[in-house]
Write the structure tokens for this entry.
Amino acid sequence: MLPVGGIIVGVIGLLLGGYSAIKLSSVNRTLAEQKARVDTFESQVSTASESAAKASRDLATLTRSTQDAFNQVGPELASLRAAITKLEEAPKAAPKAGGGAPAVAGPDEYIVKSGDTGAKIARAKGVSLPDLLSVNPGVNWNRLDVGQKLKLPKK
């Protein structure tokens, strides 16, 4: 009976060994497939990492370029602002015609006084308002300045 028990144990051992070999083969195949996937993921991660590093370098370059441009434009804007301020203040500081002396009307001219309007001037000088307006095309009739010279039309 002992030899028959040994044979049965041997057969069971062979069956378990065969089953283990089949399972090991299946596990090795699954492992090979997973390794291929891992290799693909590693490749994708490497590519993404290189792209991110390039994007980071490009962003740093763009930041430096933008800062350089602002550094160049800033002083130019400051000088333009100073020039504009100077131009705006020039008429305020400019002396009146004749260095402060009262303006003198020549023939066919009129010097605007306080409270004058186009209609008052035309009536006072005996000319029509449309004629007065036509010989002074650049005049802002809504805002006449005291001391401003106007041309008078021929009567």
